[in-house]
Amino acid sequence: MSIKILVVDDEPDLEQLIRQKFRRNIRDNEFVFLFARNGLDAVATLFAEPDVALVLTDINMPEMDGLTLLGKIEEMRSKSLKSVVVSAYGDLPNIRVAMNRGAFDFVTKPIDLTDLETTIQKALRESALIQEALRTRDELVSIQRELNVATEIQMSMLPRALPVLAKANGIDIYARMLPAKEVGGDLYDFFRLDDHRVGCVIGDVSGKGVPAALLMGISRTLLRSAALAGMSPGECLTTVNRILSEDILPNMFVTAFYGVIDSRTGVFSYCSAGHNPPYVITSSGVTPLNGVGGPPIGVVEGASYRDENLQLQPNDIVLLFTDGITEALDSNDDFFGEQRLEELLSNFHALPPAALVDRTVEAVQVFSKGTAQADDITCLALRYSGS
After folding, report:
1. Are residues 325 and 208 in the same domain?
2. Omega prior to 110 cis, within 30 of 0
3. Does residue 185 surpass a pLDDT of 80?
4. Amino acid 109: pLDDT
5. What is the pLDDT of residues 200-228, one digit of tens each?
6. What pLDDT, on a 0 to 100 scale, did the predictor assign at position 143?
7. Does residue 186 share a domain with residue 43?
8. What is the number of structural domains in the chain?
9. Do residue 182 and residue 278 come from a single domain?
């Protein structure tokens, strides 16, 4: 694309000099020179040709001088439009005023055409850098808008509250997620399977950002669909692994834990796909919920997962979490860790799920204060009241 340069001078001979000096640039369509005899003509040209990159203007001209023209150019607020002034040798006061009004550089009369060429090239390089910076800024603004929309979409996929019937039947669930970036790779979900059973899911997709968020959305949809079709936790994870293993990108996988609580019996059926073992919180202590489980989803094609069962007592709580909690770092690069989490939970065993989750997340934030959040933080608590 040709670069447009506007030359403003009331001396007609300058046009011929310019055309002769830059004839090769003009012939190669590198430069397009526009000419105006005074500031008024120049302003009209700039409005008609908004893509002018450089204005080369004399200071002393009839109708509107160069200094007034510089003021008009400043009002246009075009960051990439550069101005070079032409003045008599030794006219330092006007040159100083011109620089204060935004001129990029100056040349003196009689014009040294070689010096003029060097000045023009320097000004155009500066203009190109600013244009590139503005394009980059606009692209980043556009990306940020898209990320904001993606964040809204992702958060809208997460459940807000458990159906009233489940609470009435003695099940209370609360979850919270804090993405490390605009969009995250953690997931959680809970849903009513029938009048007595509620399913709950937590997962962690490898990586961060948009790719992880997309895989998170797909995994959540597949798992919920399998669960609502009546599959057991092990069958659900086996099905999701079979589907994702066919198309998942290399080096991407999903750790997941899916459990089902039956409000009539307190039996908690569950299965893990390489996920952090949850904790069972009772009045007598905090115990990790270990099980055989299987590999993360997408790692082993054809992997099979089987159920485990746990008998919950009234007011027992199952806490699910992602490694963004235990692997949170403080300013000394120490991990929050399982031991600190267990000690924390032992002090919170009497809290309802909402308070338990919030206090846990807040404790991690206090521990990591002063360091950037490196991973998504997600926590889900389920309490069986037995009523």
Report:
1. yes
2. yes
3. no
4. 83
5. 999 998 876 677 777 888 888 889 999 99
6. 56
7. no
8. 2
9. yes
